[in-house]
Amino acid sequence: MHYLLERVYQTNDLSKEEITYLLENLTQVDKEVLYNYALKTKQKYYGNKVYLRGLIEFSNICKQDCLYCGIRASNVKVKRYRLTPEEILACCDQAYELGYQTFVLQSGEDLWYTDEILVNLIQKIKKRYPEVAITLSIGERRVETYQNLFTCGADRFLMRHETASKELYETLHPTMRFEERRACLNALKGIGYQVGAGFMVGLPGQTFADLAEDLRYLMELRPDMIGIGPFIPHSETPLAKEKGGTIKDTLVMVAMARLLVPESLIPATTALGTLHPQGRELALKAGANVVMPIITPTSVRKQYALYENKICGDDHPEDCRYCIERRIQSAGFEVDLGRGDSRQFVACNS
């Protein structure tokens, strides 16, 4: 086992079979070695920096019906909301005042926001704050839409691939197609976005071989960002009674992603902080290097419930900003409020 850990640290490469074997046989001692290697790898590429992004969840309306998601179209109990472009701009103003140089605009797949509305919004943000990076996370759209948004100033696009298993993907996403998800990610890369992919850990029916395939897919895609979080059951979904993912398993996957795609940016997710009081700090020590404090207005924030019991539901943006800065520093890392582009992107554009 130590041979495999040493090799993935030195070469940033393992086969699917080797990854599967490693995941099946890791002891607690092995995990500590893995986390140490992941931390060293992060420091090699990014030093001790942790990048902050201001997250604006601007709509919880979604046309899709993913079995695990609290804002799925079939959940009639969720109170829906949609921020106007003016309200989104006000959130951006607040984010900028707090020092953020990346705004992450995230929503369900809400087609009320047409190409015209989104283009106008992005142009206004860029006119006001030309140096800021705009990250979109709005799901599957036409390639022409992705191109239009990139042309008018969007810099990055987050779209988790969710799972690299076609069977598992289509079981969990009855309104979506496995091939279409991958086609969207390929299109985004081709257009020139900094692209984020990623997956959930602990999904019902997920195997170690599936997780190994997730990592191999990321090695093939070479995304600029990798989002990895635990599956947390939501009471108003078909998976309400399923067992959730664990923080330990998720940390292993964060560390493996750091070793296998070393130039990526990896968030310490809010979901990890929901599972464990020190969840985000543990992720930073296992190779993560991004945190996304929430800027969403407190009046609607709790309604953006992809899963339940999400932390920071009542915190004002300035509270989130300074709380997470203290947490990052207490864990031994340095806060960076710059754009924080991926090393891969910087190398390709220098």
Task: Write up what this structure looks like.
Residues 48-269 form the Radical SAM core domain. This is [FeFe] hydrogenase H-cluster radical SAM maturase HydE. Pfam families: Radical_SAM. InterPro entries: Aldolase_TIM (IPR013785), BATS_dom (IPR010722), Elp3/MiaA/NifB-like_rSAM (IPR006638), FeFe-hyd_HydE_rSAM (IPR024021), HydE/PylB-like (IPR034422), rSAM (IPR007197), rSAM_sf (IPR058240). With 350 residues, the chain is of the alpha/beta class. It has a single domain, classed as Alpha-Beta Barrel (TIM Barrel), CATH 3.20.20. The protein has helices at residues 2-11, 16-25, 28-46, 85-97, 115-128, 143-151, 166-172, 178-191, 208-221, 247-260, 270-275, 279-285, 298-301, 317-330, 343-348, and strands at residues 49-52, 54-59, 102-107, 133-137, 156-158, 194-201, 225-230, 290-291, 334-336. β3 (102-107), α5 and β4 form a beta-alpha-beta unit. α4 (85-97) runs parallel beside α5 (115-128), α6 (143-151) packs parallel to α8 and α9 packs parallel to α10. The radius of gyration is 19 Å and the shape is globular. The model has no long low-confidence stretch (mean pLDDT 96).
